[in-house]
Amino acid sequence: MSGFALDPRLALDTQFVADGPLSQLRLMDDSRFAWLVLVPRVADASELIDLGADAQRLLLAEVNHAGNLLRACFPCDKLNFGALGNIVRQLHVHVLARTRDDAAWPGPVWGAGSAQRMAADAGARRLQLLREHLNAEFWRPG
Amino acid sequence: MSGFALDPRLALDTQFVADGPLSQLRLMDDSRFAWLVLVPRVADASELIDLGADAQRLLLAEVNHAGNLLRACFPCDKLNFGALGNIVRQLHVHVLARTRDDAAWPGPVWGAGSAQRMAADAGARRLQLLREHLNAEFWRPG
């Protein structure tokens, strides 16, 4: 996994939550949505299907854990998953808890208006809530 | 797998390409994008992470095959994957070959304008191209 470096745009837009077996779990800094991002710690990874089979299985496990974590923390009507990378090429997988009254429903969150940065205390509360519900056998809080 | 029925909206918007081990592979009827959709033949499936582990592994294999199939048929700059389901609840996974000059780049295709239905001959050509490149050991053309 040497050579991995987090893309500067992802570093700016997200906060570290925990490390999974493959990826960093990060919280998107946007108060409008309950939005996690998984970033595999694999140098130069861009396309999901170019990851090796073992890495893909780990990522799938992380997607499951992240989805269930959101459900546990934020009541929602639908989970959304996406891997786009048209702007930030570094491989990252979005995991979202959507609600019928959120700012983009029923559309996608990507490209929907501008991020509303969280106030420091609100961001800290979300991080604390997520960390309280993390499966400690799967995630390392760093 | 009994009890599966394709959602009427998906039936209207897509054409059958082939059956994978878990899912129907379908072509979105939108000339603007090279756009496949995987629909697991599982009754009442809605959330990706509520599929059983075996089904998830099959779906992951299908995602890989579908992405490589698009690459073989349509030169592209980036693959996009998404599972949203905010409008059509039936579980379906989008697999797209995006190009820098396509109608929605770099934004997502979901919610980007209106579908441009393919003329019958153009749709038939795309289906033929896809079927020529299908891995016949994996997909059954029905």
Task: List the topology elements.
2 copies of one chain form a homodimer.
Chain A: H1 8-13, E1 14-19, E2 23-28, E3 34-40, H2 53-73, E4 78-83, E5 93-98, H3 120-133
Describe this structure in words.
In chain A, 29% of the residues lie in helices and 22% in strands. The first copy, chain A, contains three helices and five strands. Chain A has helices spanning 8-13, 53-73, 120-133, and strands at 14-19, 23-28, 34-40, 78-83, 93-98. The model of chain A has no long low-confidence stretch (mean pLDDT 96). Chain A binds chain B through residues 46-49, 56-57, 60, 63-64, 67-68, 78-87, 89, 98, 105-108, 110-111, and chain B through 46-49, 56-57, 60, 63-64, 67-68, 78-87, 89, 98, 105-108, 110-111.
Oligomer kind = homodimer
The greatest inter-chain interface is formed by: A-B, 29 and 29 residues
The portion of residues forming beta strands of chain A comes to 15-25%
Radius of gyration based on Cα positions of chain A = 14 Å
As residue ranges, the low-confidence spans of chain A are none
How can the largest sheet of chain A be summarized? 5 strands, antiparallel
